[in-house]
Amino acid sequence: MREKISLLLLVCLFSLSGRAGLPDSSLSPWHITVKDKNVYTGIALANGRIGIMPSSSLFSVESIILNNVYDKESAPGVSRLLKGINFGNLHMVVDGDTVREESVSGWQQVLDMKNACLVTSFRYKNKAEISYTIYALRGMPYCGMIDVSIRALAPVQVSVAGEIACPAEYKEPGPTFRTLKDNEIKMPLLQTVAKSPFEKHTLATTASFLFDDNSAELHHTLQSPYKHQLSFDRELPKNETFSFAWAGAVCTTQDFRDPQNESERMVIFMMRGNKKNVIDQHKKMWSDLWQGDIVVEGDLTAQRDIRMALYHLYAFSSANTGLSVAPMGLSSLNYNGHVFWDTELWMFPPLLVF
């Protein structure tokens, strides 16, 4: 359904969420961009089950928020949404130097609302052009992916580490690294299993690299029971473009009897040549969601603001789950993930219309 509607009527329906910096007026009505990190508010990538909160720091995700998974806020306190065990951070070294903010130029982040992804790009010295895209995969609602592309401007040696970080308040973290085999196919799995702060739930996160080939030799580094990494090295000749992805799944006993096994199965599915398929499915499902759109003619700022509001409603909700939407959705733990009257007053009406 596509409707032309005045901004005045829209304001009567719902309010807007925050944006990552100031929008670039030259971009399309589907994009929000930021080039200045000094005033930065991240915009969550979400699929109704998990919310991935990005950061202005390179290759960094602040947190993963789980929908409808609660434990106590404190011993005498109320229930509170749980953070997932975070699989969303990468570390990159080029020619022996860690890629840091002070060494890059042309940094920008672009939220693509149409495809529900966040694209970060920059140039590292005179050595490489790097971009990465974060997805909270719509068709695999417990999974996320960071899709990375490196274009060598000179011959370079690249080292990349993917990380799983368990929140400090979780109990009995168990980090492991295993390589499963199916005939000649190897399936390396980085994993952490832990108890929630008051042991109501068991959480399991599994992650691994997705390559076009399986030639990379992987190395496991255990930094502590709460943090460990999987890494590889690659030599790139000048003008070569190298792409890979880091994908993870976080499951809990709220939704699965065996969250450890389920998180493994999801990552193995993506490893078995399905990277393009799950990204295409994600984009198709968001295209279907955007059949419920509001089109504004002649006011680019209003158009982006309206789509930003719709983007958050679609990102934080999911059909056929019976789950409601908290005031902050899947972007933070404010309000503890509780549902109030404003859900019915501000969020349900536009969802019902579309």
Account of the protein in words:
The chain is built from five helices and 20 strands. The strands form four sheets. Strands 2-9-10-11-12-19-16-15-14 form a nine-stranded antiparallel sheet. The model is unreliable at 1-25 (pLDDT under 50). The protein has helices spanning 7-13, 259-271, 275-289, 300-316, 341-353; strands at 2-4, 31-34, 45-46, 50-54, 61-72, 79-83, 86-94, 97-98, 104-112, 117-124, 128-136, 143-152, 156-165, 171-182, 185-195, 202-210, 219-224, 227-236, 241-252, 293-295. 18% of the residues lie in helices and 43% in strands. Strand 17 (219-224) and strand 18 (227-236) form a beta hairpin. It has 354 residues and is α+β, with helices and mostly antiparallel strands. The chain is globular and about 55 Å long.
Shape: globular
What is the topology, as strand order, of the major beta sheet? 2-9-10-11-12-19-16-15-14
Order of helices and strands: EHEEEEEEEEEEEEEEEEEEHHEHH
| Alpha carbon gap, first and last residue | 7 Å
Query: What is the helix tally?
Result: 5
Percent strand: 35-45%
Proportion of residues in helical segments: 10-25%
Using the CA coordinates, give the radius of gyration. Answer: 20 Å
Uncertain spans: 1-25
Given helix and strand content, the structural type is alpha+beta
For the secondary structure, the number of strands is 20
Mean pLDDT: 90
Describe the largest sheet: 9 strands, antiparallel
